[in-house]
Design a protein that fits this description.
The chain is mainly beta. The protein is built from one helix and six strands. The chain has a single domain, classed as Thrombin, subunit H (Beta Barrel), CATH 2.40.10. It has a six-stranded antiparallel beta barrel with strand order 1-2-3-6-5-4. Strand 4 and strand 5 form a beta hairpin. The radius of gyration is 15 Å and the shape is elongated.
């Protein structure tokens, strides 16, 4: 992976459960890391292949290899939010991770 391909700045977040003033559990998001990435919308054929698996993936986000990222986390890219659906260690070489994501529309 060439550094020039990673031109988008993203923040990886993990869910954290806290208590509000009434002692009610509240889900919030905590930043884990801010990294350079390549945010790529899925192309026609890729999108159709994924659509047949009953998931709604809309983007592949490529980053340098990093331990600890899992599907319970999400990615913040500018004002956009992506849920991480799967984490793929590309070619099992521990150099690059592909995050297969679905965009959240709030």
């Amino acid at each position: 992976m060439r550094a020039g391909e990673l031109r988008h700045r993203i923040t990886i977040q993990e869910p954290v459960e806290t208590l509000d003033s009434l002692k009610t559990p509240v889900l919030s998001w905590q930043d884990v890391a801010t990294v350079w990435a390549a945010v790529e919308p899925l192309r026609g054929r890729e999108y159709l292949e994924v659509k047949n698996t009953n998931t709604e993936l809309s983007a592949r986000i490529r980053i340098r290899y990093r331990r600890g990222i899992n599907p319970s986390m999400r990615v913040k890219y500018g004002s956009r939010i992506f849920n991480i659906e799967s984490v793929i260690d590309f070619e099992e070489r521990h150099r690059e991770i592909h995050l297969m994501c679905s965009e959240v529309f709030e």
